[in-house]
Amino acid sequence: MTDLQKKAIRDWGIRKGEPIGAAVTVRGNDGKELLKRLLEAKGNRIKGRSFDKMGNVSFGILEHIDIPGIKYDPKIGILGLNVTVRLTRPGFSIATRSKHKASVGKHHKITPDEAKAYLTKEFGASVE
Predict the structure, then answer these.
(1) Closest alpha carbon to 91 in 79, 82, 73, 103
(2) What is the pLDDT of residue 2?
(3) Angle (CA) 120 36 52, round 5°
(4) For residue 120, how many other CB atoms are within 10 A of its CB?
(5) What is the pTM for the complete model shown?
(6) What is the maximum alpha-carbon separation in the chain?
(7) Which long-range contacts (CB under 8 A, 24 or more apart) does 27-32 make?
(8) Domain 27-127 class in CATH
(9) What is the mean pLDDT for each group of 10 consecutive residues in the chain (128 residues)?
């Protein structure tokens, strides 16, 4: 999803109607492969404060050319990106479905410690 600028900000060089961002959702094996490459760009290190209470993790990459396999393209320039990983167990969708919503039990939610252990085991990331 690309957002369009609603009004011009002259000092920043942004015009009205210009695309300013995008959000992408990647799941399954493609998501794991992408996450592996994104963690390599960070040196396989994640700060402990990057985890929230629900076990989600977020981190930023300053330059997209730091990601292995990405080459510099002068037409694009240098871009940074924010990465957010949402970890859930099967059955978690009962909280977000449209009919018969239900709450998720506290033992079914992923804790920050479980998320850290998963990223360490699955991707070899170290948590600082």
Answers:
(1) 103
(2) 55
(3) 55
(4) 14
(5) 0.78
(6) 51
(7) 32/122
(8) alpha beta
(9) 70 79 88 94 93 92 89 84 91 88 89 94 91
